[in-house]
Amino acid sequence: MGKTRPLRLRAGGWVLAGLVIAALVIAPIAALFWQAVQGSDGLWSHLGRNVLPHALGQTAILMTGVGVLVAGIGTSMAWLVTAYDFRGRRVLEWALLLPLAVPTYIVAYAYLDLLHPLGPVQSAIRTVLGYDSPRQFRLPDIRSMPGAIVLLSLVLYPYVYLPTRAMFMTQAANLVEVARTLGTSRRHIFWRVAVPLARPAIAVGISLALMETLNDIGASEFLGVRSLTISVYTTWVTRSDLPGAAQIALAMIVLVVALVSLERWARRHQRYSISAQRARTFAPAPLRGGAALAAFGLGFLPVLFGFIVPATFLAVEAWKRFQFAGLSDRLLIEARNSFVISAAATVAVLLCGLVLAYGARAFPQRAMLAAQRVSTLGYAMPGTVLALGVLIATASLDRLIDRTAQEWFGLSTGLLLMGSGVGLGYAYLARFLAISVGSIEAGLARIPRSFDQAARTLGQGVTGTLWHVHLPLSKAAIAAAGLLVFVDCMKELSATLLLRPLNFETLATHLYGEAARGTYEEAALAALAIVAVGILPVVLLARVGRKP
């Protein structure tokens, strides 16, 4: 009994810490529900008549179009680089991931300037055709629903490409060989064998892409699509109607739950397993001559329009701006702000993720496992929705602290948490904790349980085992998680736009402000810096993705 009691005490501490972290994730969602219930009389009926139908319709059209397009691009590109061997295939394998480095709002920002009636593309076309002004010839306006669908799909298709390619790479060669012996062509193998087997990966990729589409605020606003996210933002900021924004956010939560439930229902009976002893990837079919050139050209198109064109545009505009005015002090301050808040949030996210992942491994109790699952809810919530919940919860705590300080010390603390950036860091923690938990849990899963037992026999406790065994062996997974979280914080626009302290600008909010004013050249340096940082996790994913 003397040995089990300290272990129970240590377990209680880890479980308590896990429950506190889970409560921090749940608090914004609970605050959102509470604020929505407090709405004024007749508000919901007004939203139901005048706001929600149009916003829901626009969101449904946008998500349907993006879902179909990312599924087509991602799946076809995954099959192209897996089933066929041609010159340049190795380059395409990692290059097809590059659009992930460009946030959706930056792609919209770049193409709005490129395809403007007075921009370089349409001006060049008019010169070739012999026209003098946009009145004589102009391309269809990119500020439209089709434009938004195409641009978002060019950025988000890697969410489908990456898991689908991994699924194609790990499918056993004998399945394809059996189909070939039955006289099935490689094209029919794609539809009858490869796609059905990859449906779980495709479904997961589509759901992630749709989550990002629902979370988007910058690209949708720039391109004239009034989605639910834009409705939340305008209802809150422009109309100063917090209960109304909370009620629209509830509609978004219902949509997210329905999306996740539909994805799981669609693959509820899909369980595929292949013998590890017999599994081997099938040999890609070699292509030569014109077929090889056509295959490379087809695979290069998403990279060209999803990364090379916007990145080149940003580099050219940034260089022009740098030659004209150099690096402004304002931009350097914004870069510092972005780095500091992202780094601080990353440290907090990693610590909380380590507590949840290791606590669930060391003490697999029902409460700890439940806390781990609850901690991932924030990642499914759009940034605008989560930011609204964080505002309500943090503002309530600010008022409590201020009232207490006045009663006890006669001092007013004001917006202590919101004004210091704690609210923004809190939003980052709740939103990106799932990345940390998942990555660290995957790293810990590779460490045999026998290592824990050996450490215990050598006199190490739970914390000592973590410090001396698990941290050194899982440092690569922790570093990868930290990189992903840091870059996501740097790119996050929705929560940053709504929760940043007064006079606190980041690279993302600077870009949004300049693009909203139409001064695109002023934002080129900030956009290029965000893209440069975004390439880091793409390099990491490319290195990991080389192995099945």
Automatic annotation (TrEMBL):
Superkingdom classification of source: Bacteria
Pfam families: BPD_transp_1
This protein's name: Iron ABC transporter permease
Main localisation: membrane
UniProt entry keywords in alphabetical sequence: Cell membrane, Membrane, Transmembrane, Transmembrane helix, Transport
Organism: Paracoccus broussonetiae
Transmembrane parts of this sequence: 12-36, 56-82, 94-112, 144-162, 189-211, 245-266, 287-319, 339-358, 379-397, 409-429, 476-499, 523-542
Cellular compartments annotated: Cell membrane
Family to which the UniProt record says this protein belongs: Belongs to the binding-protein-dependent transport system permease family.
All residue ranges annotated as the ABC transmembrane type-1 domain in the record: 56-261, 335-541
UniProt xrefs under InterPro entries: MetI-like, MetI-like_sf
N-terminal signal peptide: none
Membrane topology term: Multi-pass membrane protein
